[in-house]
């Protein structure tokens, strides 16, 4: 009995040794095949990769006794579809549709691959319950077992998948087999990554070539050590180099105009030594004696810091643009010559301002207005600075015109500028002017308002809106009478009388740090404060009739009477928009009246009642709310709240914010 057991043990050991030797032989055979495959894919041209992949699929299937191998790749056209691109089959099977979309056929497997997981199924029955479609399609194709690897580089998203399957019988997937086949997947991954990189490089080169061709640019690369220069055919065309001539830096210098040669050499050497961008413009002399303008743009490239190896760039013929610039320069000189013949005050601006000016006088019989007119007469004959204070619509510009017309400067036009109507960047140009080229788009020199107002009067409306930087420059002009145009270092001396106006409390602005104290003192030499219309209601009737007379001429209508009830109502109203609001109401009434009686559209009764019983803020808030509701909360435009109230859009928005007026359903005021 012991002898039989010994014999059985000997046979078992021999069989085990035989299996181990076979396993080792199979492993060595696979590793030799893997080494051969790996060596084959090294530096393999892109156009040969597809053939190498198909051959590798066949060899792996034959080595491991598998029936089917398929390779899948994600599309790069933005649709992100995983489609089958390569397949090897030992046996004939069902016809495979084209294209094969993994999302349609195997959605569960696709989900695993996108998560970077390997799918190993010894039997398709191992699929989970949610993989119903995967199981159905696997059965349709006769697949018994499968092993699928995601193809990905590092932690990036997979670019494809490699699948090996059996059709004749089920089989297991030991870890050793999985690890071996995974090496094949890695070889495919590297090959695909290199193919995609080559494809992207070719696309980039094609785009660059198309762009340079479209721009008429020639590419060139100069080896700094040897001086040899590689060029594109376009570069040879620009410089008229022979097609097969070997080129170096001297080849370029020889065709450069003698007067520009040193400058071109210096630009190249500076770019090489400093590593900065190269930009140089020069003329070249062609074989027929004609001259062309060339611009070079380039930069140095190096593999090691501080050691540039090559200078790369483009050359562009810009002769047409240069000739156009020369013609434009001559035209500008001619314009400048003609401009010098004109008066410094800028006749066009003066005529435009005179056309906009209203020929009207200050109307008012109240003691307050008589005092203001007396002050205007006092200060008009001097050159002192005047500061006019008052709410929007009280007639500050009209008072400024009156002072100017009573002064010794009345023969020259009053120059005006609204500091709130322009952004800070434009205000500086408008005030002090600019030189040609002071900034992008400044194609001509422009005289500023101070320059135009020399020996005249300059009216600065809404001066409280000036930035602190501009306040400094304004102070210098007031104290020294000197300034510089934007983009110039030359000082200009002017003799300007300044009248400023604001609806702000400048003393509070100074305390808040928004207005310079020294400028405030310089402006506040002779302040004149215009009281709001609600504080001089006895001026309402003469103002109404003055406005009626103006619109009678414009509209060719005659008004004989205004109902006492309407006039009394107007005198009870608080007038947050002052005289400007009153003018708009009269204009509206003139349009709608047709029988000689002015039928005024009176303010809302609630506003009139609160004007005597409530405080001023209540009056303003309720009236503005009423107007906004009537206009559907439309602030600007014809028939908007700003027009009806006789206010500027910016002033109305500021007042709404101050009074806490917000549109229903919105968190921010209009």
Question: What does it look like?
Answer:
- Helix 1 (2-41) runs parallel beside helix 6 (175-214), helix 12 crosses helix 13 (396-405) and helix 22 packs antiparallel against helix 23.
- The protein has a five-stranded antiparallel sheet, with helices on both faces. A five-stranded antiparallel sheet has the order 7-6-10-9-8, sandwiched between helices. A five-stranded parallel sheet has the order 12-13-16-11-17.
- The chain folds into four domains: 20-198, 2-Layer Sandwich (Beta-Lactamase); 215-322, 2-Layer Sandwich (Beta-Lactamase); 347-529, Rossmann fold, CATH 3.40.50; 536-659, Helicase, Ruva Protein, domain 3, CATH 1.10.8.
- It is 48% helix and 15% strand.
- 28% of the residues are buried.
- Strand 9 and strand 10 (310-317) form a beta hairpin.
- The protein has 670 residues and is α+β, with helices and mostly antiparallel strands.
Topology:
Elements: H1 2-41, H2 49-64, E1 68-74, E2 82-89, H3 102-105, H4 107-114, E3 119-121, H5 132-140, E4 145-151, E5 160-166, H6 175-214, E6 217-223, E7 229-231, H7 233-239, H8 249-255, H9 258-274, E8 278-285, E9 291-301, E10 310-317, H10 319-340, H11 347-356, H12 367-380, E11 386-389, H13 396-405, E12 415-418, H14 424-432, H15 449-452, E13 457-461, H16 468-480, E14 482-484, E15 491-493, E16 497-502, H17 506-511, H18 517-523, E17 526-529, H19 540-555, H20 564-572, H21 578-592, H22 605-613, H23 616-630, H24 641-645, H25 649-659
Parallel strand pairs: 11-16, 11-17, 12-13, 13-16
Antiparallel strand pairs: 1-2, 1-5, 3-4, 4-5, 6-7, 6-10, 8-9, 9-10, 14-15
Helix pairs in contact: 1-2, 1-6, 2-6, 12-13, 19-21, 22-23
């Amino acid at each position: 009995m012991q002898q039989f057991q010994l014999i059985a043990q000997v046979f078992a050991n021999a069989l085990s040794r035989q299996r181990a030797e076979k396993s080792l032989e199979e492993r060595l055979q696979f590793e030799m095949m893997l080494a051969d495959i790996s060596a084959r894919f090294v530096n393999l041209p892109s156009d040969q990769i597809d053939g190498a992949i198909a051959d590798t699929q066949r060899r792996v299937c034959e080595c491991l006794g598998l029936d089917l191998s398929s390779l899948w790749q994600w599309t790069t056209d933005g649709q992100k579809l995983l489609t089958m691109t390569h397949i090897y089959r030992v046996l004939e099977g069902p016809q495979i549709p084209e294209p094969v979309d993994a999302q349609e056929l195997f959605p569960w497997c696709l989900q695993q691959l996108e998560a970077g997981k390997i799918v190993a199924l010894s039997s398709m029955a191992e699929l989970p319950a949610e993989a119903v479609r995967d199981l159905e399609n696997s059965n349709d194709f006769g697949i018994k077992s499968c092993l699928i690897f995601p193809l990905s580089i590092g932690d990036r998203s997979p670019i494809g998948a490699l699948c090996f399957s059996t059709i004749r019988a089920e089989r297991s997937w030991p870890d050793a087999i999985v690890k071996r086949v995974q090496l094949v997947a890695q070889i495919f991954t590297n090959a695909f990554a290199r193919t995609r990189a080559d494809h992207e490089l070719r696309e980039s080169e094609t785009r660059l070539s198309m762009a340079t061709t479209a721009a008429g640019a020639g590419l060139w690369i100069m080896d700094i050590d040897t001086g040899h220069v590689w060029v594109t055919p376009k570069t040879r065309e620009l410089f008229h180099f022979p097609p097969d001539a070997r080129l170096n830096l001297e080849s370029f210098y020889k065709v450069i105009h003698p007067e520009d040669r040193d400058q071109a050499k210096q630009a190249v050497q500076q770019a090489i030594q400093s590593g900065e961008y190269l930009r140089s413009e020069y003329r070249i002399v062609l074989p027929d004696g004609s001259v062309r303008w060339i611009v070079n743009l380039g930069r140095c490239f190096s593999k090691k810091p501080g050691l540039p190896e090559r200078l790369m760039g483009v050359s562009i013929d810009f002769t047409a643009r240069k000739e156009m610039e020369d013609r434009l320069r001559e035209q500008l000189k001619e314009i400048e010559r003609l401009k010098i013949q004109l008066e410094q005050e800028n006749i066009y601006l003066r005529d435009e301002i005179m056309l906009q000016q209203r020929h009207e006088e200050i109307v008012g019989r109240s003691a307050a207005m008589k005092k203001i007119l007396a002050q205007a007469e006092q200060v008009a004959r001097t050159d002192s600075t005047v500061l006019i204070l008052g709410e929007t619509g009280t007639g500050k510009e009209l008072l400024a015109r009156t002072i100017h017309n009573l002064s010794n400067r009345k023969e020259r036009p009053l120059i005006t500028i609204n500091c709130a109507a322009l952004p800070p960047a434009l205000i500086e140009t408008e005030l002090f002017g600019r030189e040609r080229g002071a900034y992008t788009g400044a194609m001509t020199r422009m005289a500023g308002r101070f320059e135009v107002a020399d020996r005249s009067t300059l009216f600065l409306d809404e001066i409280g809106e000036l930035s602190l930087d501009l306040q400094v420059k304004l102070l210098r002009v007031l104290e020294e009478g000197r300034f510089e145009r934007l983009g110039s270092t030359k000082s200009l001396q002017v003799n300007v009388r300044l009248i400023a106006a604001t609806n702000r409390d400048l003393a509070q602005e100074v305390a808040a740090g928004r207005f310079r104290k020294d400028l405030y003192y310089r402006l506040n030499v002779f302040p004149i404060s215009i009281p709001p219309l609600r504080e001089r209601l006895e001026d309402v009737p003469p103002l109404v009739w003055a406005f009626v007379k103006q619109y009678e001429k414009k509209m060719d209508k005659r008004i004989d009477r205004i109902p006492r009830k309407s006039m009394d109502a107007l005198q009870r109203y608080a007038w947050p928009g002052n005289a400007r609001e009153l003018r708009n109401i009269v204009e509206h009434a003139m349009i709608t009246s047709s029988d000689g009686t002015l039928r005024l559209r009176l303010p809302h009764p609630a506003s009139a009642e609160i004007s005597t019983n409530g405080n001023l803020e209540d009056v303003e808030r309720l009236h503005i709310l009423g107007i906004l509701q009537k206009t559907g909360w439309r602030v600007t435009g014809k028939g908007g709240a700003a027009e009806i109230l006789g206010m500027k859009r910016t002033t109305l928005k500021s007042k709404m914010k101050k009074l806490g007026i917000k549109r229903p359903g919105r968190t921010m005021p209009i």
